[in-house]
Amino acid sequence: MNSHRRMSRGAFEGYLVWVRGAVNATIEGYLREDDPRTGFLYKLLTDYPLRPAKCLRPALCMAVVGDALGSERSALPTATALELYHNAFLIHDDIEDGAELRRGGPALHREQGVSIALNVGDMLLAMALRPLLANTEHLDLGRALRVMSLVSEMAVTTAEGQAIELSWIRESRWAIADEDYEDMVARKTAAYSFVTPVRAGCVVGRVEADVERKLAAWAHALGVAFQIHDDILNLVQSHEKTGKERWADLREGKRTLMLAHFFREAPDAEARRARALLAALAVPDAAPPPWVAARVEALVTAGRLSRDEARSLLVNAAPEGAGSELFFLLESRGSLAYAQARAAAWSERASDLLRALDGAIGNGEHGRFLRSVHAYVIDREW
Could you tell me the CA-to-CA distances from 143 to 257, 313, 347 in Å, in that order? Predict the structure, then answer.
C-alpha cells in the first residue's frame, strides 16, 4: 500500500482521539449520576472508557461509513455500542484471568471487588442496547435490525472463543494445533475487534455485498495477526508499554502460539520444566529461585538491606525469575521466531486483501485511516 495514501501517525492518532471523544460523549449521555443509590455505578461505567485507549473498534466502523457515505455521524450509535461491549468484555475477561492491570491502572475488580466489577460489566452490556435501538432513528428498520443481528452474533462468537480457551486451561491442555489456536483467536479477538466493526460499518454505509465480504476477510486476517503479535509483545515489552503486567499471559495460563509450538518441539524434560514454571507464575506468592533468596539473605545479614526491603525483593523476584527462564526456553526452541513468522504470514495476507480493495476505498481521511490501520496495530512502523 503506497505510504502517501496513508495517514501520518499524528493524523491517525488524531482520528482515534476524535472518535473516542464522540463515543465517550454519547456514553456520558446515558449516565444517571444524580441518584445517590446508584450514582456510583454510573460513575464506574466510565472507568475503563476514560483510561488511555485506542478506541479502534468504533473508529473502524466510523471510517468504513465515512468512506462510503462521506459522513460518519450515522455510525455513531453503532460505534458506541461496540465500545460498550468492548469495555464490558475487558472487565469480565480481567476477572476470569485474575488480571492485575488494565490500561496502565489496576483492573477494576482489584480496585472495587469482583461483585461490583461484574455488576459494572453487566450494566455496560445492558446499556449497549440503547444505541443499537437508537439506530432505528438514523437508519431504515432493515439496516438497524441487521446491525443488531451482527452485534448479537459477535457477542455469541466472542463468548465461544473465550470458552474454548478456558476449557484448554481447565483441562491443562497444551497440545494445541496452530489451526485450533487461530480459530480460537478468530472468535475471541478478530470477530469483535475487527470483523464486526467493519461489517457493521458496511451495513450502515450501504456498502456493496462483495466489498463487505472482502473487507470482512481483510479484518479477519488482520485480527489473527494482531492477536499473535499482541501475545509476543506481552513477553518482550514492559507493562508501561502494554498497559498490563509483563508475563501476564503466562501467569493467566493463556494458550499462545509460542507455547503451543514449544510443547510440540520440546523434549520431555524441558516440557516438564516449562509446566513447573507456568505453575509457579500462577501462584502470586511463589518462592524465588534459591540462589536469589540466599543472596538477599546475605545482604540483610551484611546490613545492606532491611528485612522489609528484602521481603519486597523476594516477592518481585519469583515471577520475574520464572518468567525469564520460561522466556529463555521459548526462545531457545525457536517458538518466538515461529510465532513471529505466523503473524507475518497473516499480516501479509491482510495486506494483500487490502491491496485488492484499493479501488473500492477512497482517498479521503476515512479511506486513508483504513489504509493506516495495518501499520498502527501490526507493523508499529511509525
Answer: 38, 58, 31
* Confidence band of 246 (pLDDT split at 50, 70, 90): low
Question: For residue 301, what is its C-alpha cell?
Answer: 545479614
Burial of 331 (0-12, 13-18, 19+ CB in 10 A): middle
| H or E stretch covering 85 | helix 76-97
Say if residue 340 is exposed, middle or buried (CB neighbours under 10 Å; 0-12, 13-18, 19+): middle
C-alpha cell recorded at residue 327: 522466556
Residue with cell 540462589: 291
The grid coordinates listed for 56 are: 479502534
- Cα 331 to Cα 325: distance, rounded to the nearest angstrom: 10
Going along the chain from its start, the domains and CATH numbers come out as: 3-242+330-379 (1.10.600.10)
| 179-199 residue pLDDT tens | 999 999 999 999 999 999 999
Between strands 101-102 and 105-106, the pairing is: antiparallel
Q: Is 378 exposed, middle or buried (0-12, 13-18, 19+ CB in 10 A)?
A: buried
Quote the pTM value.
0.86
